[in-house]
Amino acid sequence: MTGVLAGVRIVEIAGIGPGPFCAMLLADLGAEVLSIERPGDDGPRPSAIVQRGKRSIVLDLKAPGAAEVVLRLLDSADGLIEGMRPGVMERLGLGPEPCLARRPQLVYGRMTGWGQHGPLAQRAGHDSNYTGLAGALWFAGPTGQPPQAPSTVLGDIGGGALYLALGLVAGILRARSDGRGQVVDAAIVDGTAHMLSLLLSITARGGSMARGVNAFDAAHWAGRSYRCRDGGWINLASLEPQFYAELLQRLGLDGDARFLHGQHDAALWPELTRQLAQLFAEHDRAHWCAVLDGSDACWAPVLQPDEAAAHPHLAARGTYQQVDGVLQAAPAPRFGATPSPPLAAVPPRGAHTQEVLAALGLPQHEIARLQGCPRAAT
Asked: How far apart are alpha carbons 73 and 34 in whole angstroms?
């Protein structure tokens, strides 16, 4: 194995959303991830990107003896990832108590939306519910429009998977120094609220919690994207004076008194926004890219992922790659001395069941039974 996390072993109780993404991220960085999946279709699945880089086994966790098999798999593990509702793993006999009793140095990672305790702990939810309650969705969108953020990105990944990954790595570092494992309670509401720290620091210095009145939210003309004649979009974020001056020069607005004096005048923002909207609508996106190219005006075209993959900058960095015909983002961040392993095909569900369970000494009929297919016993 290669990668900065080579030698780290993770057992994942596969679910949906942020838990599998967290496990994929750790695998991208070189960790050995064993994904325990439910019985299901075992055919090719190149679009199951979050399963890349992992080994996969199939276990029916409700089958008698399945919990004992999982506990045995933890004997050499550094961490466990699970994303069930609170109490489910306990009912399966795989809660933190038996797992840490079996493997005291284990870091037990729990991924939920609402957390392991609190009035909402047992309630169902999705990304925008968590980010809405946590206060982050409030800033997503211009004044008077419904708050809306990219699906899964802000909550599931930003506030959830990334915080769980950091929690696991931090817990493993501690366990390797003192031999003590622990539970990591990664709640999307907690992580998302934590990501508001920069915005909260700005509002504490005289800003406002009101939506649409601050230079850092979508009320400001420079926090917006503008539609071009062909339906493409250009995003502007020219906040600092020197970048703002360059933008005005590139757009031919450096002689317009409204723009010269309106950068920080909230009363003028609606008018500046309308003027910019009219201006960008006069030409296609390619025209504006040519006008702004090479400048420090703090701008970018708003691209679809397939367009982004072909952009010269991201192409030069190899930010996107194709694996089995599926567009995927390359592992991030990048490490100079311990680069991540190259992307490989997603394994079929249960591709490593025989190898892993046979190594535990289980006979074939028992392996078949634990996969939920007792008739396959030989």
From this structure: 9
